[in-house]
Design brief:
Layout: H1 11-43, H2 48-75, H3 77-96, H4 101-129, H5 132-163, H6 166-182, H7 200-223, H8 228-250, H9 258-262, H10 264-293, H11 299-325, H12 330-347, H13 357-374, H14 377-383, H15 391-425, H16 428-435, H17 444-477
Helix pairs in contact: 1-2, 1-4, 1-5, 1-6, 2-3, 2-4, 2-7, 2-15, 3-4, 3-6, 4-5, 4-15, 5-6, 5-11, 5-14, 7-8, 7-15, 10-11, 10-12, 10-13, 10-14, 10-15, 10-17, 11-13, 12-13, 12-17, 15-16, 15-17
GO molecular function: transmembrane transporter activity
Domain Major facilitator superfamily (MFS) profile: 14-481
Keywords: Antibiotic resistance, Membrane, Transmembrane, Transmembrane helix
Length: 501
């Protein structure tokens, strides 16, 4: 089977449309965090209800991405992209006009469902529109767009919140998506030639399973990891996901074709964003808190320092794509990027409350460069291993690994920081305040030292995890051994894409 785009295709406009959408979705993640204080003050809320402005988005985003990707293969990738973008825009407008925190949380959950459709179908659109070197460049640009969204989100939202209020930040997300959707008519439609009915049972079980697992991870730090509620959520989530695998193995038209997961190279490439979450996203989330709390930097100054890590994410993806198109294997580029994560996190243990920017500039640049090299190239290499009719399913699974790991790892990382700080300050409640950047509950020097110790331990553990991930992924991407010919030239693996060889 093949998937042939239908209708007139304008690749340049298609790329711009998808890039705009991919810029907005991560911007809605990082930018919303800046708006939380203003939301809490305006809607008179705090604590868990306020935090669910972030959690609701991440929860539905992670849970619906695989379903959206498989549905896109059946109903059409352009159609799924437009529907997802429309749902995202409506959710953002609803968030901008919400009159209380419950309505805002519901609107954010709706936006997360739309974001899942955009991410799953957008990658599939590029995979079926471009091929060869052009596809490598397209996915490199996609990596830059996603990085720009993550990096620019806090800055743009900060300006809007300061000048117009928090509602303007969500209005911006809706406006950018509306501009992107205006060009959707230039995208050629494509879908799988064989179009069985959607596996509704599998979809329900998967969404329930992953959603429950993510919910348990998110609530773990608040309720306690050993609490009956969290343990029940984690056990039920894992059980439902196991049931999902069993159902897919027996289904004639599965939501997830398990042959994809059995392809060790594809699965290895899907693990790249998981390692990126450990090595990059955790720092993007918790380093600003340390800089503002322990180092005493202003939010603006902390954001400026963070540019050392985020700027390379914007610049490196085209460099990585160029290297691959010039003959450097994607496997080599990816392995180097993951080693950079390990080195950057290990090196960042030089950070102290009094450390100058010059001291931490090296590790931040190294970590950001690692993220930039892996963004885009890994996705493009993964899609080169997939048949066109499974493009949506494949991008859905890939981004499920990305978003799901972010929701779970960030929650666990935060819980680890709190536990480590509590061993130094003697109070879990005080440790939670310290990990959130509030060092006013005691001697600031002692609390800063406790925060620094916890961060150093977390960085060391992250570096170890990234090292293990780099070795495992590089090994999984290695071509199989072949008999050496008489000329001592190894036979090429006909199933191995050129960029991975």
């Amino acid at each position: 089977m093949t998937t042939a785009p239908m209708g007139r295709s304008r690749p340049a406009i298609t790329l711009v449309v998808v890039l705009l959408a991919f810029l907005t979705v991560p911007m809605s993640i990082s930018g919303a965090a800046v708006a939380l204080p203003g939301i809490g003050e305006d809607l008179h809320t705090a604590g868990a209800p306020l935090q669910w402005v972030m959690n609701a988005y991440n929860l539905t985003f992670a849970s619906f991405t695989l379903v959206s990707g498989s549905a896109a293969d059946l109903v059409g990738r352009r159609r799924a992209f437009v529907i997802g973008g429309g749902v995202f825009a409506v959710g953002s407008l609803a968030a901008a006009s919400a009159s209380d925190i419950v309505l805002l949380d519901i609107a954010r959950a709706l936006s997360g469902i739309g974001a899942a459709g955009v991410f799953a179908s957008g990658g599939a659109i590029l995979a079926t529109t471009f091929d060869g070197a052009a596809r490598t460049r397209a996915f490199a640009a996609l990596g830059s767009a996603a990085g720009l969204g993550l990096a620019a989100g806090p800055t743009l939202s900060g300006w809007l919140v300061s000048g117009l209020g928090w509602r303007a930040a969500f209005g911006l997300h809706a406006a950018v998506l509306a501009v992107a959707l205006a060009g959707a008519g230039c995208i050629a439609e494509s879908r799988a030639e064989r179009r069985p009915r959607l596996d509704v049972t599998g979809a329900v079980v998967f969404v329930a399973g992953l959603g429950t697992l993510v919910l348990g991870s998110v609530q773990g730090p608040e309720w306690g990891w050993a609490s009956p509620g969290v343990l029940a959520l984690l056990v039920v989530g894992v059980g439902l996901l196991v049931l999902f695998v069993v159902l897919q193995a027996r289904s004639a038209a599965p939501l997830l074709d398990l042959t994809l997961v059995k392809n060790r190279r594809f699965l290895a490439l899907c693990m790249v964003p998981v390692v990126s979450t450990f090595g990059f996203v955790t720092l993007l989330t918790y380093l600003p808190t340390y800089l503002m709390g322990a180092s005493g930097l202003s939010p603006q100054r902390a954001g400026t320092v963070l540019l050392l890590m985020t700027a390379p994410v914007l610049l490196a993806p085209p460099l990585a794509g160029g290297l691959v198109n010039r003959g450097v294997s994607a496997r080599t580029v990816i392995a180097i990027s993951l080693v950079m994560f390990a080195g950057g996190n290990a090196w960042l243990t030089v950070i102290t409350p009094s450390a100058s920017v010059a001291v931490i500039a090296g590790p931040l640049l190294l970590t950001g460069l690692g993220a930039g090299l892996s963004f885009g190239v890994g996705d493009g290499a993964a899609m080169s291993l997939v048949e066109p009719e499974q493009a949506g399913m494949a991008t859905g699974f890939l981004n499920t690994m990305r978003i799901g790991s972010e929701a779970i790892v960030i929650a666990v990382y935060g819980a680890v920081l709190v536990s480590l700080v509590s061993t130094r300050v003697g109070s879990r409640g005080l440790a939670e305040e310290v990990a959130a950047g509030d060092l006013t509950g005691g001697d600031s020097g002692t609390l800063a030292d406790g925060f620094t110790h916890a961060l150093h331990v977390a960085l060391t553990g992250t570096a170890a995890a990234c090292t293990i991930g780099a070795v495992a992924i590089a090994a999984a991407l290695a071509p199989p051994r072949r008999d050496i010919t008489a000329t001592s030239v190894p036979a090429k693996d006909p199933q191995l894409p050129t960029e991975l060889a």
